[in-house]
Amino acid sequence: MQYFIEVIIPLSLPKTFTYRVSESEFNFIKKGMRIAVPFGKSKIYTALIIDLHQTPPALYEAKEIHQILDEKPIVNEYQINHWFWIASYYMCNIGDVYRGALPSALLLESETIISQNTATFVDETLLTDDEFLIYEALQHQSSLKIESIIAILNKKTVLPVIQKLIQSNIITLQEEIQEEYKPKLIRYIRLHEEYHQEENLIALLDSLKSEKRKNVVLQYFQLQAQEKKPISVKQLTEKAQSSVAIVKALVEKGIFEEYYIQEDRVNFEKNKVDTALILSEAQQKAFEEIKNSLKDKEVTLLHGVTSSGKTEIYTKLIEEYIAKGQQVLYLLPEIALTTQLVSRLTAHFGNKVSVFHSKYSNNERVEVWNNVNQHSDTSQIVIGARSALFLPFSNLGLIIVDEEHEQTFKQQDPAPRYHARDAAIVLANAHQAKVVLGSATPSIETYYNASIGKYGLVTLTERFGKVAMPEMELVDLKDSYFRKKMKGHFSITLIENITEAFANDEQVILFQNRRGFSPVLECMSCGHVPQCPQCDVSLTYHKYKNQLRCHYCGYSMAKPTNCHVCSSIDLETKGFGTEQIELELAELFPQKNIKRMDQDTTRGKYSFEKIIDGFKNREIDVLVGTQMLAKGLDFDNVSLVGIMNADNMLYHPDFRAFERSFQMMTQVAGRSGRAEKRGKVIIQTYNPLHNIIQQVTNNDYEGMFKEQLYERKIYYYPPFYRVIRLTLKHRDFDKLKEGSMWLYQVMQQNLTIPVLGPEEPAIGRIRNEYIRTIMIKIPSETSLQGTKKTIQKILNSFDLVSQYRAIKVTVNVDF
Fold this sequence. Notes:
Blueprint: E1 3-8, E2 17-21, H1 23-28, E3 34-39, E4 43-53, E5 63-64, E6 67-68, H2 77-89, H3 94-101, E7 113-116, H4 129-140, E8 143-145, H5 146-153, H6 159-167, E9 171-173, E10 185-191, H7 198-207, H8 211-227, E11 231-232, H9 233-240, H10 244-252, E12 256-262, H11 281-296, E13 299-304, H12 310-323, E14 327-331, H13 335-349, E15 353-356, H14 362-373, E16 381-384, E17 396-402, H15 420-431, E18 434-439, H16 444-451, E19 456-460, E20 471-476, H17 477-482, E21 486-487, E22 490-491, H18 492-503, E23 507-511, E24 520-523, E25 540-542, E26 547-549, E27 556-558, E28 571-574, H19 578-588, E29 594-597, H20 607-616, E30 622-625, E31 638-643, H21 657-669, E32 680-685, H22 691-697, H23 701-714, E33 721-730, H24 733-750, E34 755-759, E35 765-766, E36 769-779, H25 784-800, E37 808-813
Parallel strand pairs: 2-5, 13-18, 13-19, 14-16, 14-17, 15-16, 17-18, 20-32, 23-30, 23-31, 29-30, 31-32
Antiparallel strand pairs: 1-2, 1-4, 3-4, 3-6, 7-8, 7-9, 10-11, 10-12, 21-22, 24-28, 25-26, 26-27, 33-36, 33-37, 34-36, 35-36
Helix pairs in contact: 2-3, 2-15, 8-9, 11-12, 21-22, 24-25
């Protein structure tokens, strides 16, 4: 009798594959385990088992597997079903979902490149023969492919050996070389056994001539009396105000012994503060309403104004679910936000909290994955960006989606292009868990679902501590320039208010949703603007690096000294970004500490923490930033927020532009006056009478919602229609034009619903590929599944037309 398994391969392939196993392997294997399988001519991949059966494949001869990588499943049934739902709903391949869901350290393949982690001390005597051979090879060359390791060890089963070396922190995957590693082994110290007897100890203290050494030994005893816990070298040197060299000298003399304890890389036990959480009257009322709403609704929206204390309500809810022994997932839109939230939640829950996002190293992410899978106490609450949705929860009780309106919850590239908020609601449904969506400016779709009774709705209209909403002031830039009331890009009004904030020892946030120094460098003689050679965009000038850079493909060049067309030296920058604001501020207020928070300054692993902690500790006076600042950050000493130019958000060619502008400005404004004193917001704009700007000024969410809903209904947009966008890309402009027209005509013939296109987007070429888009609008009464099947069939037939096969088509559902 033959035995087979069904697996998912981490490649962009729509179907599963069948492999042959022996009877004993068949009896050992369980769904959710990983196995190494050969695929193609010579490649090896980490596949995931999703089924066991005895039916041979009809179209090909099943290959044998290489080896089993796990002793027990690392993925559960809930996850596998959820992945298949994502693949089906978002019209992508199951292989893409699998690849996107698992941390890359769990997805080793024959092309993975590994290198030595030089930061780790390696005790060669503890390595097995195979591990030593790999380690030795890495002494002679900087990196190895897994194919090379197969040749070095002369055997195919190498993945377990590599996995062991990764866990021991001896080797790293190539993409992690730049990572700052936190040590996994913590160095501890204890007194040598012979000094446990009192007479030996007295003799030792008498024999120590150096006061510094004697002090270290005495401080060790003091710590031992206080802590009743192992004492780390770091702890001892801090307490004794001594150096590591003195401790090392005492170890060499045989007075102290060193030993290592393995700890989780991320540990929050020390953060815990034992204080009871007391809600205000308004918070308590909202908390009770949410609990009642969740009794008969699966999803509840908490619509609370900025600084109304939504986090405290979430904390109370989390307490209740943890008390029942259930897991809680807390989703956030930005990694920057996790920094503050982690410190707040760990102060309350200590080491019950785990964090999962892409700034964590592979090893740290695998640790969290395993902890969640094993129901560890350290991961009862998981805080993370959208990828945390894929963790192996098996007892999920509550999902909180904070700032649910944020567009960063939608994955854009690569596939799966899922929306974390919507996927979280489906995941919760599978676990019979509850979902709380929170926002001061909910998305139109969510608020619509709440208004028709599909979701529960709880509103919180007062700020915590009954602080008044910030005072809004509009500055008309047209008028200010005309009356010469501007200094650079700062109106006199804004400068006066910044000066007043500094006089009161308060902090300021300035928002400009564009990074770099200036988006355009123009020749004043002939009007030439340097363009990216690979994309249809002008190059952004970054003064800090003195270069022009493309924000789409990364192309950069040194700033030219003269025009490339007419050789004139009269070059001027037009427009402004965060870098220019930072420099202008430094000229206006040279004594103040000004920091910038955008994609350029937050590339490192701990860069968010450094900036946010510095601002919270009042070391930074002004924080200039992009939309990273607009999310629920909480600083109690910010009295003024300045929006440098409100208009550049309003005029995007996107049906959500007005909604997003309202959300962004309201959220940024909400960073102001979060403590006792009322804050102030100054909005600089060329169009102060614009509806959206007026609605932001009056904090009129309802007005914005009704107006946008009316327009969405007329123009067939969500929530009344589902929208699918097809993006076609090719290097040959004519072939793309012809292929997109063919696809559009076939769509129009086969679908009885609006199909728009093929349209050239605002940026028609990126990375030397021309772009066309087709939009399909599906009315709510039409079968979504049926329409998607028809679209998929048409796309499959498009792939079969030989002259169009090279055109790349991506599908974005609910974009």
